[in-house]
Amino acid sequence: QQRLLHQWLEVMIHNAARLRAGLGFYCHAFNEDILQEPAAYAAAEDGLYGRLAELAAYAGALDLKFIAVEQMYSPHQIPWTLHGSRKFLKEIWTRSRRPLYLTLDTGHQYGQRKFIRLTLDQLRQSLQKARLTGRLASGLWLGPGSAYSLFRSAIAAPENTEDEYLQRLEREMDRYPYLFAAWEDGDTYGWLRELGCYSPVIHLQQTDGTSSSHRPFTEDDNRKGIIHGGEVLHAIAAAYSMEPGEGMPPRCEDIYLTLEMFSGTADFPVDILAGMAESVEYWRRYVPKDGLTLRELLDNHSGGQPPRPPEWLSAGG
Length: 317
Description:
The chain is of the alpha/beta class. Helix content is 47%, strand content 9%. The protein has helices spanning 2-18, 32-35, 38-61, 82-96, 120-133, 145-156, 162-174, 188-195, 219-224, 229-241, 269-284, 294-300, and strands spanning 23-25, 67-70, 101-105, 201-204, 254-259, 292-293, 314-316. Strands 1-2-3-4-5-7-6 form a seven-stranded mixed sheet. α5 crosses α6, α6 runs antiparallel to α7 (162-174) and α10 crosses α12 (294-300). It starts with a helix and ends with a strand.
């Protein structure tokens, strides 16, 4: 950890500062054994915040343009929920008095709804179904391994013990709130509306909401996709219209909208380049040139009356 911190990330911060650039990265994750023990998870989370706060302070001392960590999809890679992302931003700001921001990605919200905690009725239905089949349903998310052990015991137990086991399951899941997401955590535009103003770089990919496949913004992909340029701009504007929460860092003054598209190893170069060109053409309808303020961009696409951002906000293409 110390080598990564001091010999990799601090060197990258130093080089980025010399270039008068910013730095975005992601290079941490929690092992499964840490996720399975609340005390170990709390210690690992606290240690991560401490190291990132140290990086934020180092970046601030060098007057780095910005430093940001990418938002991810699942419990082992934080921040991955809206609540966790707000905590992430607040913790580092409180510890360092320097901002470390998020990098939002328009496809990084597809996984969270796999990790929503089941209601009591849903647990009961899952248990009754498992009794009929003799096994757990595929894709059943209960959180910790201890909850799965309880569930398996409940399958084999007499039916008159069902309520007792369900209560035990709920108490066990209560111990692991960090393993569960909420429905709104799977909403790309919800993330932009709440936290877009804390994301100096936003990765743009087209997605149908069922995967983070980093598709281009071609006519065919846009027809099937859920990411639309005007809606992205309106959602970012909404983030600036809200009062900043207590303990949050300063909001970003500049946002860079960055295309992030992946191609297959066997894809033809001519098709890859055509998809890139069409994606640039699509986004230039919404960001006709770099350096325009968000107000100017919205005035060009005033399909409604979105919340007005501060005058100083600018967006880069």
